[in-house]
């Protein structure tokens, strides 16, 4: 029996009121990475009320895996992230954040609501011939940040062993630069490798009126910064994708004192592994300028998420499931996504779901918001994709 597209469209639309209610509640009570206690408890209550899921709690932190099985067939994972950002919300909507300094500024509130919508329709269909195998709904903590081990929620959930049997995995991301009714997809490398660096320049400070008596680390830092920024255009092949950006510079506490130490922190983004390795190598070379100018340094590089790798065959299924929407092809930019850990291990793909408002909002913006009419589209695309995979034995 083939999945009836019109049926899923109408049933997803009928969920719209609840999708909005859930999304706004998540938005009012955002929680940072590895602190998603209330969020997790709310999701667990909703899932358990459906009475068809085997619910695993506290996976990789506050993560949840809700599993439903019916008959023989592949195991399909559908993932949504749960955490918010350390952003002070500046919007004036009635559902603005009630947790000071924390905000859902990346759409994770919508991702969770959409996956709860998938859970509701899946619960209705579980004994039908649409469900031919296993579906695991993955509510993942800590996409935005890692812990002291350098691990995000994706890494921890994958280490749990509860997901070892996945045949395919799906996810979406809200897309504020596309309008409702639009979808952006891309085969292969689609989001960036994300690595961070922390360079400490050690000099010898002293009185600002006597700079000739000190070894000024701020002066040394000016040469470092010039070299870092020239790296973008002079070491990376212009046909490749790679960039380095400085996000933090810390030095001194007074206007009349030359400090002993300057800290420079930043990020490196790339698509190809060879470009990733080149950027790391070049930063090590640039750091040697410090000793040439009489200072000392320490350099720490933390390797983050790999580039997101989308499977073309999975994308074909997503596009079939999204029939009727307007498609745009192209990489999703230089942001990173720890869903990349899933697609490096299992065939899978993430698509970007249009949700843009008349006045476009950027991801991580302090007044970020979405067109909530986009939510039912996410439900039916994810669920229809899973059904198509089960009909075809995971192919």
From TrEMBL:
Mention any Pfam family matching this sequence. Answer: Peptidase_M20
Answer yes or no on keyword Manganese: yes
Q: How is the cofactor bound?
A: The Mn(2+) ion enhances activity.
Instruction: Provide the Peptidase M20 dimerisation domain boundaries.
Output: 196-288
The UniProt annotation places Mn(2+) 2 binding at 106, 108, 144, 364
Q: Can you tell which superkingdom this protein's organism belongs to?
A: Bacteria
One GO term in the molecular function aspect is: metal ion binding
Binding of Mn(2+) 1 occurs at 173
The cofactor named in the record is:
Mn(2+)
Asked whether the UniProt record includes Membrane among its keywords, one would answer no
**What UniProt keywords apply to this chain's record, in alphabetical order?**
Hydrolase, Manganese, Metal-binding
Gene3D superfamilies, from UniProt?
Answer: 3.30.70.360, Zn peptidases
Kindly list the biological process annotations in GO that this record carries. Answer: diaminopimelate biosynthetic process
PANTHER family assigned to the protein according to its UniProt record, in alphabetical order: METALLOPEPTIDASE, PUTATIVE (AFU_ORTHOLOGUE AFUA_6G09600)-RELATED, PEPTIDASE M20 FAMILY MEMBER
User: What is this protein identified as?
Assistant: Amidohydrolase
**Taxon lineage:** Bacteria, Bacillati, Bacillota, Bacilli, Bacillales
């Amino acid at each position: 029996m083939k999945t009836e597209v019109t049926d899923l469209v109408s049933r997803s639309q009928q969920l719209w009121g609840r999708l909005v209610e859930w999304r706004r509640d998540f938005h009012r009570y955002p929680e940072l990475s590895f602190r998603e206690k209330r969020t997790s408890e709310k999701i667990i209550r909703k899932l358990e009320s459906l009475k068809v899921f085997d619910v695993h709690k506290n996976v990789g932190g506050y993560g949840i895996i809700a599993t439903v099985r019916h008959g023989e067939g592949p195991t399909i994972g559908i993932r949504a992230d749960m955490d918010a950002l350390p952003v002070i919300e500046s919007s004036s909507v009635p559902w603005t954040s009630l947790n000071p300094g924390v905000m859902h500024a990346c759409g994770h509130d919508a991702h969770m609501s959409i996956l709860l919508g998938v859970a509701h329709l899946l619960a209705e269909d579980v004994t039908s011939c649409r469900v031919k195998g296993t579906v695991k709904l993955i509510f993942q903590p800590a996409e935005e940040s890692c812990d002291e081990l350098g691990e995000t929620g994706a890494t921890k959930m994958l280490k749990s062993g509860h997901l070892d049997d996945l045949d395919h995995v799906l996810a979406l991301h809200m897309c504020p630069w596309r309008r409702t009714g639009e979808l952006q997809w891309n085969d292969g490398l689609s989001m960036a490798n994300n690595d961070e660096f922390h360079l400490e320049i050690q000099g010898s400070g002293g009185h600002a009126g006597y700079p000739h008596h000190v070894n000024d680390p701020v002066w040394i830092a000016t040469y470092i910064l010039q070299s870092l920024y020239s790296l973008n255009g002079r070491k990376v092949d212009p046909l490749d994708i790679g960039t380095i950006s400085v996000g933090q510079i810390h030095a001194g506490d007074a206007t009349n004192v030359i400090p002993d130490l300057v800290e420079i922190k930043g990020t490196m983004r790339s698509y190809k592994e060879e470009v990733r390795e080149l950027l790391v190598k070049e930063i090590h070379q640039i750091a040697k300028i410090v000793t040439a100018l009489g200072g000392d340094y320490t350099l720490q590089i933390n390797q983050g998420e790999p580039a997101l790798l989308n499977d073309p065959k999975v994308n074909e299924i997503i596009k079939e499931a999204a029939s009727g929407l307007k498609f745009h092809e192209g990489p999703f930019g230089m942001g990173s996504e720890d869903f990349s850990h899933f697609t490096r291990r299992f065939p899978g793909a993430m698509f970007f779901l249009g949700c843009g408002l008349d006045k476009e909002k950027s991801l991580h913006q302090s007044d970020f918001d979405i067109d909530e009419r986009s939510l039912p589209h996410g439900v039916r695309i994810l669920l229809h994709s899973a059904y198509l995979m089960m009909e075809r034995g995971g192919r």
